[in-house]
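To start, one record:
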Amino acid sequence: MESNEIVKTSEITIRVGLDAAGVPTEMEWGASDRNNGATDPCKAMVLALFDREHRDTLRIDLWTKEMQVMEMDRFMYQILRSLSQTYLNATQNKNLAEDMARFAHYFGEQTEVIPKG
């Protein structure tokens, strides 16, 4: 039988530096139980949270001015690939997860993140 008792917590920190127009120029992230809480720089982030009460998804999508299109293509490809695996792990719906993975592969080929073939 599983217990819902919390035995450990971790705080995740995201810092975003904005220019005068409110556009992200620097971003960094860290977790209290990773690298002694030190933060690391990043160029983009996608955060999705499922609201328990409203049963709706809350999202934050940010990227810095220096994020290049080819980097965004790679970032999106990697997210799509990982989402198909996450979906499979959570639902065991192999057919739909494979469809998602096929689309991720197609996206990767179309953006030239991976070779066509």
Notes: Residues 1-66 form one domain. The first helix runs from residue 69 to 91.
